[in-house]
Amino acid sequence: MPSNVGVACGYTTPLQGISRYTKTIHQSGCIDVACNGNQQFGMAEAAASQADATVLVMGLDQSIEAEFRDRKDLLLPGYQQELISRVARASRGPIILVLMSGGPIDVSFAKNDPRIGAILWAGYPGQAGGAAIADVLFGTTNPGIYLLDVSSEMDSNFNKFSLAGLIIEHQC
Fold first, then answer.
1. Using only C-alpha atoms, what is the Rg of the chain?
2. C-alpha distances out from residue 85 to 88, 95, 110, 161, Å
3. Using an 8 Å Cβ cutoff, are 143 and 119 in contact?
4. Model confidence over 112-146: pLDDT tens digits?
5. What are phi and psi of 162, to 5 degrees?
6. Distance from C-alpha of 42 to C-alpha of 65, rounded to nearest angstrom
7. How far is the C-alpha of 83 from the C-alpha of 12, rounded, in Å?
8. Apex CA 52: angle with CA 140 and CA 55, to 5°?
9. 40, 28 in Cβ contact below 8 A?
10. In whole angstroms, what is the distance from residue 43 CA to residue 57 CA?
């Protein structure tokens, strides 16, 4: 019987996908998705200050969210929010935030940052995900979506979350 469980024979990362379109400068800002330290932030800021545009790929993985592994909040783990803000300040060009997660993430801080021009939620995109992300970023394809929990933000009046069904939010 066929199964979709297992390790893919090949995987295209977002960096590999974007590199098909343009020259890239790559610098990790965190050691892993938990982002428990900010030791690499200076190098990420330096890379962003040299780039014509900056793509930040952030989010979660199954060490943070999975069946029987509840999250305590909807925030990005560790120092990811600080990394995004610091790189956005250092960047000399437009910033695109790509989010990878299976559930909602509160990125209202990024939505309200005028330096961040677009937010793309990619889910857990699979083996060709990096190519798909790059195709969206460079306009080769226009994504469609039918999910509810794409972006979350805190509604302070009711102390609950308001969910929007948008995959890309573009700020002018």
1. 16
2. 5, 11, 8, 22
3. no
4. 999 999 999 999 988 999 999 999 999 998 876 65
5. -105, 125
6. 28
7. 24
8. 60
9. yes
10. 16
Summarize the chain as % helix, strand, coil (round to 5): 25, 20, 55
pTM higher than the cut 0.85: no
Length of the chain (residues): 172
Distance, in Å, from the CA atom of 167 to the CA atom of 151, rounded to the nearest integer, reads 8
User: From the CB of residue 139, how many other CB atoms can be counted at a distance below 10 Å?
Assistant: 8
Amino acid at 134: A
Which two tokens mark 76?
A: 């990005």
Kindly report the backbone phi and psi dihedral angles of residue 96, in degrees, each rounded to the nearest multiple of 5, phi listed first: -120, 130
Q: Provide the 8-state DSSP code for 140.
A: S
Is 62 exposed, middle or buried, given 0-12, 13-18 or 19+ CB atoms closer than 10 A?
exposed
pLDDT tens by residue, 64-90: 998 888 888 999 999 999 999 999 999
Q: Name the DSSP class of 109.
A: H
